[in-house]
Amino acid sequence: MFNWFQFKKKKTENKQSTFNDLSGLFDALSASADFVNSSHNAAGGMCWITYIKTMVNPDFIYSAVLFPLSEKKFGNLDELEGILPIEDIAITEDVGEIQNKLMSGYIFIRLHKNAQKGILLSAIANETRQVSTPEVEFSVVGPKEAFVETMDTNINLIRKRLPIPQLHVKEVRVGKISKTRVGVMFIDGIANQENINTVVQRIQDLEYDQIPDSSFITQMIADNSNSPFPQIVDTERPDRVASVLTEGKIAVLVDGSPHVLLVPITLVEFFSAFEDYFLPWHIASAFRLIRLGAIMFSVLSTPLYVAVLTYHYEMIPTDLLATLVSSRADIPFPPFIEVIVLELAIELLREAGARLPTKVGQTIGIVGGIVIGTASVEAGLTSNVLLIIVALAALASFTTPIYQMSNTIRLVRFPFILFAQLWGIVGVSLCFSYILAHLLKLTSIGRPYLAPIYPIRIMDLKDALFRLPFNRQSKRPIQMRPEDSNRFNAARTLEKRDNKK
Questions:
Q1: Which of 36, 185, 366, 405 could disulfide-pair with 270, CB 3.0 to 4.6 Å?
Q2: Burial of 465 per CB tally in 10 Å (0-12, 13-18, 19+)
Q3: pLDDT, greater one: 474 or 52
Q4: 349, 373 Cβ separation under 8 angstroms
């Protein structure tokens, strides 16, 4: 049977290999000012050295290449390979390989100007920033290291925490033009092989010209790219990645991105901060419940305000009704317009604060909120009660530990407001039913998104809405389908190990 996808993929790959020999490749590269293809008078005779100077380390070229060539004699490529003190070195005449390596920071050495075979050796200049503290997932207690844009450094930060040979990394190249390195990391013997195969296959099947960041991968391999709910977590914390790898999850690292993707994932994990594991279990559980309550308040507070004031006055207590009536006595707009205006004003302030420089953004957020809020109430455009509700709802939305879910909460609020205007509390219930039905169908790499709530997993509830002590978590999460479900011997943890005299 004819496979159109494979034919299309091969056709695309053939278009990329446009050079039949080195002369065509070097002619194309010579149009760049940073391309070097020069002769060198070595001890063994004349040789030709080719590289892109902005991609290589100049000190390394002198100390590990030019100096040995000037000191030791050689007669062929094998002898030349033996005198160069470099591990990543190979003899090749493959034009495609030479092209990819040159663009990655390798040096190509030939014995003759027109020779098609030569030696490729690594001289990559690694320009990267130092490991710093997390900015998005900052925590008061716990490690203070964050990922950087170099994938090798990020792998080092994870391996430092998991020094075991079972920690494997599968690397692929993605992007027809960018050739971005993408690594799939997992613990062999724990991670489910079906999950690993699914992630690797989806990444290998990507058809796109350039992948500058892990967020591109997130949108392309998600089960439902049209859903507003994120199905993949991105994190900047190495400790979090190391922890979930031991549960059976899979990490996806992208060279050039300071964020690592984690799959499969569930909805409740978006409301769990990794700092919870550094706190006593009862305090961490209380904080999780507070976050969940804050999210529900953020989503439902303004829709319920619209529904009650539009259709259900009888639900308001008498004492509170008088306050609401007096606050809205001079308001010319219905509750729906009033809420939409304030919600959009809050979103404008958020966007302005995020796009401006840090110090200016903080000033805009604080001053803008005070000025706009006070002026709108004094001008009689909004009620002071609604201003308090909208401000608290915006504050509650910031309690979400994962930034991706915070954006979803901001977006989901508007359909609730619209349904509340159309059908009151019945509309709010209907919108909630639509979202719940959508969540029930949603999956992450083929695994249920609402687990362990649905399908119910009693054993996994110990670290979902609340967190039990560590000695009660002897099993890995069932929804991950780990090959080894046991974390430790639960019976031994209950024994008293103190020496009795």
A1: 405
A2: middle
A3: 52
A4: no
Return the bridge partners of 49, or none: 38, 109
Distance, in Å, from the CA atom of 261 to the CA atom of 186, rounded to the nearest integer, reads 12
How far apart (Å, rounded) are the C-alpha atoms in residues 6 and 266? Answer: 33
Q: Hey, CA dihedral for 53, 59, 60, 62, is it positive or negative? A: positive
59: left (phi over 0), alpha (psi -120 to 50) or beta: alpha
- Tell me which residue of 297, 367, 374 sits closest to 342, measured CA to CA: 374
Alpha-carbon distance of 398 to 353, in angstroms, equals 14
Please say whether the beta carbons of 354 and 361 come within 8 A.
Answer: yes
Answer for the pair 294, 401: CB distance below 8 angstroms, yes or no: no
Predicted confidence (pLDDT) at residue 324 exceeds the cutoff of 90: no
In the chain, the percentage of residues whose pLDDT exceeds 90 is 45
Distance CA 483, CA 495 (A): 27
The secondary element (H helix, E strand) that includes residue 261 is strand 260-263
Q: Is 375 helix (H, G, I), strand (E, B) or coil?
A: helix
User: Is the pLDDT higher at 335 or at 3?
Assistant: 335
Distance CA 420, CA 115 (A): 75
For 281-314, give the DSSP string: HHHHHHHHHHHHHHHHHHHHHHHHHHHHHHH-GG
How far is residue 98's CA from residue 347's CA, in Å, rounded to a whole number? 50
Q: How far apart (Å, rounded) are the C-alpha atoms in residues 328 and 382?
A: 8
| Side-chain half-sphere exposure of 458, counting CA atoms within 13 A | 0
* CA pseudo-torsion sign 422, 425, 428, 433: negative
Q: pTM for the complete prediction?
A: 0.86
- The two three-digit tokens of residue 126, written as one number: 């690694």
d(CA 288, CA 297): 14
**What does the pLDDT read at residue 75?**
82
Alpha-carbon gap, residue 66 to 48, rounded angstroms:
11
What three-state secondary structure class fits 376? helix
User: What's CA 285's distance to the chain center, in Å?
Assistant: 25
Listed in order, strand segments (DSSP E) in 105-259 are: 106-110, 118-122, 167-174, 180-187, 233-235, 250-254
Summarize the confidence of residues 226-250 as an average pLDDT.
94
Q: At what angle do helices 335-355 and 403-441 cross, to 10 degrees?
A: 130
Q: How far apart are CA 41 and CA 188, in angstroms?
A: 50
pLDDT for the residue 361:
65
